Amino acid sequence: MTTGIAVQAPPRVRVDVQLVLWLIVGFSLLTLNAPADLWGTITRLRVPDTDDAMRLVGVRDLLAGQGWYDNVQYRFLLPGGVQSHWSRLVDAPIAGLILLLSPITGRSLAEGLTAVLWPLLLLGLFCLMVHRGVRASFGPRAAVLAVFVATQTFGILVQFQAGRVDHHNLQILAIFGLALCLVRGGLRPGLVGGGLAALSLAIGLEALPYIALGALFLAGDWMLRGRAALPAFLGFGLGLSAAFPLFAAQTAPALWGTAYCDALSPPWLWLAAGGCATALACAGLDRHLSSAGARLGFAALCGAALLGGFAALFPTCLGGPFPDMTPLVRAHWLYTVNEMSSVPKFVAWRQWEILAFYPILVVAALAATWAAFRGPERRLFRVAALFLWPGVLLGFVQLRGIYVAVAFVPLVAGPVIDRALAAAPNLRGARLWGTLALSVGLVGSSWTALALLAGALTPTAANGRDPDGAVTCHADAAVAPLAALPPGTVLAPIFIGPSILLRTPHSVVGAPYHRAIPGLTAVIEGLGGTESDLRRQVRAHDIRYLATCPSRPGDDLQAETAFATRLTRGEVAVPWLEPVDLPGSALRVWRVR
């Protein structure tokens, strides 16, 4: 007699994919900043960019008692100083966090901790917005995949790293929030979206093209669908009117009538008011505009009146935000700044970091465009494509064009990779490999690895503008020793100016800001010209110290090598400049006799 013995199969281990993904996200966030970088920011205010340094200078001035409406940097280009076009609405929360921490840590550490905490808090808010936006349309797995992609996208992370207290991260949050409101539709999301657009304008005008596209999207939706799309269009127009109280909150009443092309002022308030009036007019006449053609005609008439009025009232701003910039300053400063460089220029100079920034944007834009005409939730992909393609086009010409657009990569990547994971078991051959390639192409760390590999195989060409040389010369170790010298005005390379203002009591002649054309001109001519050019600028601006960066000489403005460059190399010496020894500093410094 045989007895059947049932053999039990071992229990199947089920892997919680979402838990694994969240663990990876947590690890990515924990390793976003190297411990040495965090400590350097906390203890020495290490910041990644000149704009971050200048922002902290403005915040310090505000905390020291400088007026809310007084945006003049008085140690920049004496005797009058330079009026900044930056928003106090960005300074305020940073200053508030410093005040909150100061009783616990002291002012110095409070500044460093704020420089670490502020961008990390904004990154957490961005990840929350990404998760909620994707989860509402595609479910929890796609949402966590989107957050994972956000933590792997280099173009996003550089805007939220420790020390990044400039305004680009806030612009990302405002425009990304606007996009989510466009996806949802309806009166309330429209109001919120319009308010976020107004906030973006108050912070800075960099995102103006995206706001215009958002308005056109809602207007076009109303033209095609009529009354069903009207609430979102009307809400956006009404929300956009928030630009007026925001303008009043950050602009001195005496300047309310002054037109600026680089900041929220009457030219841009005209557009905001026109957008609000257009939305109200379309809502009032909607019942009489029964066809798409009639709605298109009326909206086109309103748009023509709005743009025509702008051109007639503010013609100077048609040429861009830098109407007073001279050819000398454009050639020897503006066009040498990395964020103003094109993709071909990055490639020609073998600056392979462009591979970490740009290709993923192209892949995401193509994927969003394809999904906008296939499958579910087409509206989300249409909105994503709407904001990605300007980044592709503008970013090809200027790197800064991708700063906002790259935030929409996770919005596309999360759902696309989620679909790929679901479909992969049923795919074979070319379709499987194509799906895999698309998924990998939407994860930024793969492009970062490619950039590192390209840099290792083909080192950056030797060119006088080596970015490592720049970092060395405006770092704390190089600039802080200047503080031991008696206060005076320093003539130094343009990119060092903000660090001198942040780390020393000295004044500067030049810093990388377009409202200071005389100072930019003085530095370019002084460091790039002859001895007589340098002496002329020294006298004109009452210079007490000359500082140069050996690894970043000035551009030669004549056939022979610039006098300041030869002075730095030790090839010449003159009695009216006395060398100053600053142990440990990468700078060469002279005192003017």
From TrEMBL:
Segments crossing the lipid bilayer: 19-36, 112-132, 138-158, 193-218, 230-248, 268-286, 298-322, 354-373, 380-396, 402-421, 433-457
Keywords: Membrane, Transmembrane, Transmembrane helix
Name of protein: Uncharacterized protein
Native organism: Methylobacterium radiodurans
Source species taxonomy: Bacteria, Pseudomonadati, Pseudomonadota, Alphaproteobacteria, Hyphomicrobiales
